[in-house]
Amino acid sequence: MAITKDMTIAEVLQANPNTAKVLFELGMQCLGCPSAAGETVAEAAQAHGVDPDELVQKLNAATA
């Protein structure tokens, strides 16, 4: 399954737990907090000053 900017962080982690490493490396360490359940990849990227397209590329690379 390809990861998109519209997926929530929770959906990404459920689809592939290996993506947690990418998120941690980018400073996104509150993966289990309530906001992560409803926050999209694009929203999380914006909140952490990360380019959303770059984040999606890294997350998809982690699933390969």
Task: Give an overview of the whole structure.
- With 64 residues, the protein is an all-alpha fold.
- The chain has one domain (9-63).
- It has helices at 9-15, 19-25, 34-38, 41-47, 52-63.
- The longest helix is centred in the C-terminal third of the chain and has 12 residues, at 52-63.
- The chain is globular, with a radius of gyration of 10 Å.
- It starts with 8 loop residues before the first helix and ends with a helix.
- The model has no long low-confidence stretch (mean pLDDT 90).
Q: Mean of the pLDDT scores?
A: 90
The domain count comes to 1
Overall geometry: globular
Structural class computed from helices and strand pairing: mainly alpha
State which percent range the strand residues make up: under 5%
State the major sheet. none
Number of strands: 0
Helix content: 55-70%
In short:
The chain has 5 helices and no strands. With 64 residues, it is an all-alpha fold.
Q: Helix and strand layout, with pairings?
A:
Layout: H1 9-15, H2 19-25, H3 34-38, H4 41-47, H5 52-63
Helix pairs in contact: 2-5, 4-5
